[in-house]
């Protein structure tokens, strides 16, 4: 290495600085490829300034020569290049936007019966609505629609509080639902609540004291409890009230199946009768387009339990 | 100036280095302060109410911005997922803004009104109870910690100093009534800040517990207003492109 340095010392110019008596620095020319690369960036910048918005001038800026044309209310509008206009154009004429719009128009022109039977439409609906469901519904109903026991309904079974036809599902999404069951702490005694609980469990073939259940039936179907007014004489539920069927052993709000003893089940149901519940599904009519609501309806209907 | 004198003088080298690298920032930032179109003309953007502002403070305190951005960018996929892209005008009363640069969690710029208050409370206490695959930590103490609003007036005065139009004098109040309507103007009156905070927290009871005003009340109040101030149905596709 030292021999190399000695040989070059006389050929290459130094910067002229000398430290510690003999420490010098070569002033080698820049590599040619680097220099040309540098000039290229300068040229690139000049061209860029001409095409795109670049330099501030006073309270405005140079707009550049590039333009973007997009449509506003059926009229063409041309503006200088900017990302917002670019987006507006992309939303209107971008390759995927156009393909998506064609499918949206197809789905919009079909009624539910046709959509559900049309494999082409359904594959689009599934893909699109899965995204919408993830954005708007999964926060409560979970990604797969299985819900959370005690809080949010499972959409994958054929148990519907508010009805499982496409019309009813669409109404639920559009207008939201306000589910309400009063608590009976001031109306029934603790024993009576146990009796009602026993009756409801007996409707689902759980082992309960039959005397208790018989007493519960009288409260359930009589004016004392009045449960039949919403849940029906036979406990089959009433979609117009959002009152669930109590006979199919599907439990959305009480974890009956998770309980490990008869007494625990009785306690859970009796507590529910005592406290009542209020749940709200928000309305989406103002937040989603008609097309989106339609696709979500078809998607939810097809999750498992559509009627 | 000789090359050598810069190289042999560390102090001078540092000063000149700072001068050179600050050019990049200055040419990009300074013009934004005097270009007319930087902040779009749009109706509806208002300062935060005292309760929302305290919620925002908690948002910052808990470091929410390290995982959540508040900036929907103008791309088609973001529009489809989050809604309309964010406007500069929508953060004109934010000090400091919460645009963020890291999305470990989803963007929150348009989260307001998307979920119910009950959902937000439950989700903040235990995110995995609602979103099993979530990696967000829980913030259960928000629901049990009383909100300290004793200094809310001072906080609003500080924000007023940097340009947020909270009112102190009668003229400022009248100007706010003119600009934001009486209902909001009352909320922006620093003289009644505590009172207004309590009034909103009690009226809307964000956390579902009316026995006391918790940090959760403030946090949810803030989350529920995010991105909801501008009614985008009033503006056509091209309106905001005119400002860029």
Q: How would you describe this protein?
A:
- The complex is a heterodimer of chains A (307) and B (244).
- Chain A has 12 helices and 8 strands.
- With 307 residues, chain A is mostly helical.
- Chain A folds into 3 domains: 1-82, no CATH class; 83-128, no CATH class; 131-302, Cytochrome Bc1 Complex, Chain D, domain 2 (Orthogonal Bundle).
- Chain A is elongated, with a radius of gyration of 36 Å.
- Chain A starts with a helix and ends in a 5-residue tail after the last helix.
- Chain B has 244 residues and is an all-alpha fold.
- Chain B folds into 2 domains: 3-33, no CATH class; 50-243, Cytochrome c-like domain (Cytochrome Bc1 Complex, Chain D, domain 2, Orthogonal Bundle), CATH 1.10.760.10.
- Chain B has 11 helices and no strands.
- Chain B has helices at 3-7, 10-29, 50-61, 76-82, 117-125, 141-144, 152-161, 170-180, 182-187, 193-204, 215-225.
- Chain B is globular.
- The two termini of chain B are 42 Å apart.
- The mean pLDDT of chain B is 93.
- Classes of the chains: A mainly alpha (307), B mainly alpha (244).
- The A-B interface holds A 15-17, 53, 56, 58-61, 70-73, 77, 79, 82-88, 90-92, 94, 96-97, 131, 135-136, 138-140, 142-143, 148, 151, 280, 282, 287 and B 3-4, 7, 31, 34-37, 74-76, 79-81, 85, 113-116, 118-119, 122-123, 129-133, 236-238, 240-244.
């Amino acid at each position: 290495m030292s021999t190399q340095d000695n040989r070059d010392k006389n050929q290459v110019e130094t910067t002229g600085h000398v430290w510690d008596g003999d420490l010098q620095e070569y002033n080698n020319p820049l590599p040619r490829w680097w220099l040309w690369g540098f000039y290229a960036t300068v040229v690139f910048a000049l061209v860029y300034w001409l095409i795109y918005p670049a330099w501030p001038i006073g309270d405005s800026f140079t707009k550049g020569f590039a333009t973007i044309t997009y449509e506003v209310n059926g009229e063409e509008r041309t503006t200088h290049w900017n990302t917002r206009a670019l987006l507006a154009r992309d939303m209107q004429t971008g390759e995927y936007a156009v393909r998506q719009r064609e499918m949206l128009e197809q789905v919009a022109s079909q009624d539910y019966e046709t959509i559900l039977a049309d494999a082409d439409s359904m594959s689009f609906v599934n893909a699109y609505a899965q995204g919408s469901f993830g954005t708007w519904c999964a926060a409560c109903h979970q990604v797969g629609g299985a819900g959370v026991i005690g809080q949010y309904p499972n959409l994958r079974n054929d148990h519907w509080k508010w009805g499982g036809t496409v019309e009813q599902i669409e109404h639920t999404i559009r207008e939201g639902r306000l589910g309400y069951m009063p608590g009976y702490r001031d109306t029934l005694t603790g024993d009576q609540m146990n009796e009602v609980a026993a009756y409801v469990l007996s409707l689902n073939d759980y082992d309960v004291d039959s005397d208790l259940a018989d007493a519960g039936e009288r409260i359930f179907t009589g004016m004392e409890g009045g449960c039949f007014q919403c849940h029906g004489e036979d406990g089959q539920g009433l979609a117009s009230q959002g009152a669930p069927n109590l006979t199919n052993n599907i439990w959305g709000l009480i974890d009956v199946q998770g309980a490990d003893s008869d007494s625990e089940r009785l306690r859970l149901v009796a507590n529910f009768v005592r406290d009542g519940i209020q749940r709200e599904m928000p309305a989406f009519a103002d937040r989603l387009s008609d097309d989106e609501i339609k696709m979500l309806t078809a998607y939810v209907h097809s999750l498992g339990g559509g009627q | 100036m000789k090359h050598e004198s810069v190289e042999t003088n560390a102090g001078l080298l540092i000063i000149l280095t700072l001068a050179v690298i600050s050019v990049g920032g200055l040419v990009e930032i300074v013009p934004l302060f005097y270009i007319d179109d930087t902040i779009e003309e749009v109706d509806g953007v208002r300062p935060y109410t005292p309760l929302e502002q305290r919620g925002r403070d908690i948002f910052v305190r808990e470091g929410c911005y390290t995982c959540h951005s508040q900036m929907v960018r103008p791309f088609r996929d973001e529009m489809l997922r989050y809604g309309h892209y964010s406007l500069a005008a929508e953060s004109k009363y934010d000090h400091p803004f919460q645009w963020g640069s890291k999305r470990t969690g989803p963007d929150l710029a348009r989260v307001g009104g998307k979920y119910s208050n009950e959902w937000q409370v439950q989700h903040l206490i235990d995110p995995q109870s609602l979103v099993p695959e979530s990696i967000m930590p829980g913030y259960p103490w928000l629901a049990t910690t009383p909100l300290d609003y004793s200094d809310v007036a001072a906080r609003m005065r500080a924000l007023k100093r940097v340009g947020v139009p909270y009112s102190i004098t009668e003229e400022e109040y009248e100007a706010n009534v003119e600009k934001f309507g009486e209902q909001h103007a009352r909320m922006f009156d620093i003289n009644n800040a505590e009172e207004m905070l309590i009034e909103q927290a009690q009226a809307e009871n964000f956390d579902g517990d009316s026995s006391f005003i918790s940090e959760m009340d403030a946090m949810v109040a803030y989350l529920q207003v995010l991105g909801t101030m501008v009614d985008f149905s009033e503006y056509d596709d091209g309106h905001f492109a005119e400002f860029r």
